[in-house]
Amino acid sequence: MPPEYAIEVDHVVRTFNDDFRALDDVSLRVPTGQVFGLLGPNGSGKTTMVRILSTILKPSAGTARVAGFDVVRQGDQVRRHVGLAGQFATVDENLTGFENLRMIGRLNHLSSSDASSRARALLSDFGLDDAASRLAKTYSGGMRRRLDLAAALVARPPILFLDEPTTGLDPQSRQDLWGIIEGLVEGGTTVLLTTQYLDEADRLAKQLVVLDHGHVIAEGTSAELKSRLGATVLIVTLASTDEATRAAPLLSDLSSRPARVEGTVVELNVDQGPSNAVEALRRLDAQRINVAGLALREPSLDDVFLTLTGHRVDAESATDAPALPARKQRA
Amino acid sequence: MSPTSTSTWSFAWAVRDTFTIARRNLLALVRVPTSLVFAIIQPIMFVVLFRYVFGGAINVPQGVYVNFLIPGILVQTTIFGSVGTAIGLAEDLQRGLIERFRALPMARMAVLGGRTVADVVRNVMVVVVITAVGFAVGFRPTGSVVAYLEAALLMLLFAYCLSWGFAFVGLVAPNSESAQAITFPLIFPMTFASSIFVPVASMPSWLQGFATYQPVSQVATAVRGLMNGVPHGASTWISLAWSIGALVVLAPLAVRRYRRVA
């Protein structure tokens, strides 16, 4: 009988260079057997959390237990229960796909024949049969990501950490990876998923927390988060800034949150996208305000931030996207 | 399970993990042969340069210069080879592979152990090739075959112990290019202000003290003495002492750094 919570984090703090607090008193509970989302922009502390839970980093304060084992005192047991894959797709470029997986199997202390058969099975599961004996450096981005995920699954870990698994992937590879993750959870795996994409968290995660500068700023189910947000964002573009200022108060009761005006654009979080859009057009037309454009879109992480914190995703942290898995950048 | 059997098992796992990593590093050597080719071409250029360009102007106390030169080149080459440890580890760190290894239930020592073991294997290959090249340019060692093998073991051991220091460099450097740049000022004076290419007696007196007693010269003297069957004082024992001393100091340094890097 697996424990109720696969991951228990209590008041974890992690500082770098004595003053920068990448995680500041974070607590969370990840129920066994589902996808739990860690949503936040670059620099919010998601990767730091994953690294602490996979025993790569030690917390500066607080405790964390994975599969019931303390990450600091029982690191060996934790490592036997977890798999780690992520946006940096750390595969050995000078080995073939098969050799990569076989090596990971051997380092997980599988016998030589078990490591080989496991490697073959995973390559076939992930559609990499044809590329099995090609060097990983010849793989496309999507193939690398799949190989990286396969490597994380070699030892059949009950708990999987996926650190921005779809960042930088094309839409098709993204869909493929989502399908794989859903299949794993059906098989009983617990997944901690970090992502910058609200739609990804919405599609995969039952529960999620939103991180900002190392703090949890919201938690709950994806539906709860969306109900605070409005299901859709309505964007009305007017002919002039003057008209935009006049339009905003006419539309504000369509949304539970204040309308946002930026230049000639008015943005609203609404619950019934199309009918709200029609209503907006009708009211503006009645006042003879010229509408230059109208659009509906899914809310993004940026909208979550605007709603929860009143500010957009920090421009600095958002542009500070780590291009390489260099040590400092990942802090 | 008793504590003894647990630790016996974990030791066995550590050895197996070390070989798994060493195997992976040797495969990379086969897959990217340029690094091996450069490791061999560079000493061949030194052999040609000193044998045919500078050699005529260098007087050695006994025997012919080529018999003085080749043992020296071998020592230099194995030391240069151990620099590969720094570059390889810096690359693994840069690519995030070390992170992956650290999240696996493997022996933590194995990443460093496997790297240094693979680098010894690479050095063995280089020693074999340069010995053959030496013979081709007229090297005729006057010592016994057993003494030749002893000399080879001695320099491989020295380079192995040194590679733990380079492992530390590789873990400190921000990337592999810097790792290479950092090692250069370390090994340049050690190999050139030494008895590798020329007799120390030909150097200015202020340099002779350093050049005579520094470890690389001791190893060169021992290797040359063994290969050519000439007396070489206590240099073999001094070289062994330097090797063990380096290992005792540098290995814990590298291991401590490995535990800390993230």
Brief overview:
Chain A is an alpha/beta fold. Chain A has helices spanning 46-53, 75-81, 97-107, 112-125, 141-153, 171-186, 198-204, 222-229, 241-251, 273-286, 301-309, 315-319; strands at 5-16, 20-31, 35-39, 61-66, 69-70, 82-86, 159-163, 190-195, 207-212, 215-221, 232-238, 260-262, 265-270, 291-297. In chain A, 37% of the residues lie in helices and 27% in strands.
What is the approximate shape of chain B? Answer: elongated
Structural class of chain B: mainly alpha
Termini of chain A, distance in Å? 36 Å
Order of helices and strands of chain A: EEEHEEHEHHHEHEHEEHEHEEHEHH
Number of domains of chain A: 2
Query: Which stretches of chain A of 5+ consecutive residues score pLDDT under 50?
Result: 315-331
Can you offer a commentary on this structure?
The complex is a heterodimer of chains A (331) and B (262). Chain A has two domains: 5-91 and 139-226, Rossmann fold, CATH 3.40.50.300; 231-298, Alpha-Beta Plaits. Chain A has twelve helices and 14 strands. Chain A is an alpha/beta fold and 331 residues long. The model of chain A is unreliable at 315-331 (pLDDT under 50). Chain A is elongated, with a radius of gyration of 23 Å. The longest helix of chain A is centred in the middle third of the chain and has 16 residues, at 171-186. Chain B is mainly α and 262 residues long. Chain B has one domain (3-260). In chain B, 79% of the residues lie in helices and 0% in strands. Chain B has helices at 3-31, 33-54, 65-94, 97-102, 110-136, 145-172, 176-192, 205-213, 215-228, 235-260. In chain B, helix 3 (65-94) packs parallel to helix 6, helix 6 (145-172) packs across helix 7 (176-192) and helix 6 packs parallel to helix 10. The longest helix of chain B has 30 residues, at 65-94. Mean pLDDT of chain B is 90; it is low at 1-5. The chains are: A alpha/beta (331), B mainly alpha (262). The interface between A and B is medium-sized, with 30 and 29 residues.
